[in-house]
Amino acid sequence: MTRRGSRITVDLGDEELVKAVKIAAVEQGRTVRDIVVEALTQWLGEGHNPTPPSSSTANSALNAASGSAEPDYKSMIENLNRYRGVGQ
């Protein structure tokens, strides 16, 4: 199954951080994208959840992010949109 890519633009607010990530990517033979995806997945897996803690759907999405080979990003986005009140 081919996945469609998603793009975001993020202002990290610190040129030194940007340089450090780029240097780390080169040194590790990885892409900046890989490092950012890994960091965000780990962050979500550690319980940094934008939805209320009582949401079982959000918790299952977090469990998928931390324990499965293929995290349930669609559920995470749906929960985030519900939290923000988008599409209601």
Primary descriptors:
mainly alpha; 88 residues; single chain; 4 helices
Protein architecture, described:
- The protein has 88 residues and is mainly α.
- The chain has one domain.
- It contains 4 helices and no strands.
- The chain has helices at 15-28, 32-45, 56-67, 73-84.
- Helix 2 (32-45) packs across helix 3 (56-67).
- The termini are far apart.
Short description:
It is built from four helices and no strands.
| Count of structural domains | 1
Backbone structural class: mainly alpha
**Biggest β-sheet strands, sense, barrel:** none
End-to-end CA span: 31 Å
User: Number of helical runs?
Assistant: 4
Radius of gyration: 15 Å
Helix and strand sequence: HHHH
The shape is elongated
Q: Mean of the pLDDT scores? A: 75
Number of strands: 0
SSE map:
Layout: H1 15-28, H2 32-45, H3 56-67, H4 73-84
Helix pairs in contact: 2-3, 3-4
